[in-house]
Amino acid sequence: MATCRSKRFVLLLCGDYMEDWEAMVPFQALQAYGVGVDAVCPGKKAGDVCRTAIQQSSCGHQTYEEWRGHNFKLNASFDEIELENYDALVIPGGRAPEYLAANGSVVDLVRKFSESGKTIASICHGQLILAAADYLKGRKCTAYHSLGPVLVDAGASWVQPQTLADCVVDGNLITGTTYQGHSEYIRHLVKALGGTIIGSGKRILFLCGDYMEDYEIAVPFQSLAVLECHVDAVCPNKNAGDICPTAVHDFEGDQTYSEKPGHNFKLTANFQDIDASTFDALVIPGGRAPEYLQLNPKVIALVKQFMDSGKPIASIGLGHQILSAAGVLKGKKCTAYPTVKLNVVLSGATCFEPDPIDRSFTDGNLVTGAAWQGHPEFISQFMALLGISVVF
């Protein structure tokens, strides 16, 4: 269990093949806001791994498609849960709820949260667990549309989702349809925990490319959207509504990270129409995209414009390749993923070893992170530069 107590603490109920983003985005976003999060799974202990699943709509098919996601490391042990330590329960979707709903210990846990009156937030297929715990009778809720019949049979007041981003709040119950609605879903949870967002309304630009790292775009993008910021994602030679495929980079015992296909990330604006002067900050995800984005003169000009204006820039993982190519790191202090340390040092920066790998560092208007494991600190430091905070 966690050794230090935040002002608010949340329990994240995990299982093998839970949906990748529906676990990691709330897990890391809440920590960035100052909320403690314990991630547990029945039959597993702190340090064990839950494999995740990537689920998304499949063009031309009658249901979503699924493949392997990241490995999600638990930070607490299910058998050591003490209900009084938590202010809310969060349940990701994916396939894990199918079998967790049949686990007596899980059902008992949900019933105890229900009896305590504490907040429960559940998304997508997570509502199967609530149905098994007899929690939904007379409660308004939504979920992924295929759950409608079983939730009606469980006595729920079913709200048919009109979009995959729909959310419903009924007292202490927050339900969401899919991760596409994370900005509203997690914002409701933050407010239920007593959080007030200070400094919202910032305009933030994300510089995207094919095979950027899956978490390194999704987590900061959705975390900042939760905070009522206007977030735009652009990619050279692509327009609003176009897709950038992402890459899952994970550490699985090999000498370097493995790579698997990630989610398809939908862009929100046209690169050629971007006016950097209208944005307050820039975020550069890592992955493989920076390898070729650094060769694009328009990308380099955009990064230089942000740096010359003194606006906040946040770069993580291999994103530093773009900063190096733009010549904006000279005299800067930063941390970096080990394989891009050479780029950073040769560009005239002082590089701090990422030990541990979740280290982030701020120097002036620049926030750098080594890898997605450091998102809570990375996002928190970026929020500080933007003048954004969550007060409990």
Automatic annotation (TrEMBL):
Domain DJ-1/PfpI, chain residue ranges per copy: 10-191, 202-384
Superkingdom field: Eukaryota
Pfam families from the UniProt entry: DJ-1_PfpI
Cross-referenced CDD domains: GATase1_PfpI_1
Family per record: Belongs to the peptidase C56 family.
Protein name: DJ-1/PfpI domain-containing protein
Source organism of the structure: Acer yangbiense
